[in-house]
Amino acid sequence: MSEHINTTSAHSPKKITAVTTLTPLDIIVQNLNASISNNGHRNTISYATSALNLLFLQQTMDLLDARAYAYSMQGQPELAIKDANQIIKYSLTSTEGYLRKANIFTMYGKQAQAIEAYKEGLQNTTPGKEQQISIEQMEKGLVEAVKQNKVQVDFISKLPTDIVNNVIMPLLSPSTNASCLAVSKLWREVLIGCSSIWENLSATEDNPNSIRLFNMIPSAGPHVKYLTIDTNVSAIHTDCFDL
């Protein structure tokens, strides 16, 4: 079963250009030009090296961000998160990696992880004019993630009956199925209608779940093909034999 992706929450990466100009780079370039004009060769080497490192770093981060976005849109969240973490590793105080990481988690409905990513970003990023917009995005994203994390979705009532009966329920243990009977009237009706979980019914343990399953025989009886009962279990109600 493919994983659901909420692509409406995804924000596109930056457009990749040949050169990305940053405010720190502008300062270095100004100093570099001054050194060249003054024949300050030692400083020229130093400033040129710093500029090259900055250019390489930002371009690498932009490319990783673009790839992380593409991975997330193609249903490959693990690879997307790996790239986002690499961005963070390159620049711990930049908002870029944290925003991408949180956005990926949000796309895949993992709000708790998104909350952690936003909190990590707000704690580690450096405040400043250059990052103010991104910091505000993280703050708003955190509020929304906390809000969404409180919303509980009843997938049993939302998913098609065929998927519930043929994919989900057969994977659950008998004790889990018994617990599901007590969730709601709707869940109870869905479970009773799922023939596969009743074909081989066993009531051999003196515990609430085993007894709960046994007490469902009057309702689920038509689905039962094999029934195992431990008559030494005192809590089994004999009136359940009147099928």
UniProtKB/TrEMBL annotation:
InterPro entries: F-box-like_dom_sf, TPR-like_helical_dom_sf. It comes from the Eukaryota. This is F-box domain-containing protein. It comes from Circinella minor.
